[in-house]
Amino acid sequence: MRAIKAGVIVLILSFLACNNPTENIKLVIDTDIIKYTAMIQVTDAQTGSQAPGNASIAVVSSNAADVYEISGKKDIKLVQGMVTIGLHPNTVPTTPITVTVEVAAPGYVTQRKNIIFNTEVKQQIVAIGISKIGNTAPPIVTPPPLTYQEVSLNFTGRCPNRADVEIRPSVYVSFRKNGSTEGFKYLGYMDKGNISTNLLALGETYNFQIVYGGESYTVTQKIEQTSYNLSIDMTAACNF
Fold it and tell me: SS3 for 31?
């Protein structure tokens, strides 16, 4: 099955490139190709920690051929317990579409989860907790996060060794305090690089993470004002 490619927009930044006609031309990669997506986060049901590194996920429903990783790849795998899946761009869920995923890990009970896509919700978060075999303790209950003053973040993706390429990511963002040993928590969905949130405390330093194309990318920022422009490497978006 062929992968879906992200869109490429050519922006001419200057008309003064007389000696080199390609100078000052920037390629802008728009990752907003798959419209109906679900960010899956797998954790240990009893501790809340991220799934073990050897955990696997597979789409096991009969419509698996219509399901892709958010980058457009058919290779769907967990990265630090997370992956975003979605429907092929030509598949519009005017009638709800149910996709079944199965999560397995050595020493854990295999878990299946139905994910329903419909036109009312384009982005959704799906939490899957897996329990160790023989563990009958109830799942941990995570308290709601504290809220603060709204902060606006504008992310720009970069391609290593390609200064002429800029990426406008439309992906899910996770975060945690810098230096924390806890797993990443869901922050929100960025649309073409932009996201506003009230989950960040002034004076704190955070790691921001995106999982895209089977890779994890992070950037760190101390929050001292209400707006930031951040750059983040996104190698998986550079294969065009």
Answer: coil
Alpha-helical (H) ranges within the chain are: none
- Rounded distance, CA 115 to CA 124, Å? 9
Task: Specify whether 122 is located in the same domain as 159.
Answer: no
Structure tokens at 181: 């040993």
pLDDT tens-place string over residues 162-203: 888 999 999 999 999 999 988 899 999 999 999 999 999 999
Q: What digits encode the pLDDT tens for the residues 125-156?
A: 999 999 999 999 999 998 899 999 999 999 99
Question: 């959704």: which residue's tokens?
Answer: 124
Q: What CATH number has the domain bearing residue 212?
A: 2.60.40.1120
Residues 107 and 78 both lie in one domain: yes
Q: Can you say how many angstroms the Cα of residue 182 is from the centroid of all Cα atoms in its chain?
A: 18
Domain of 175 in residue numbering reads as 151-237
Q: Is the pTM of this model over 0.85?
A: yes
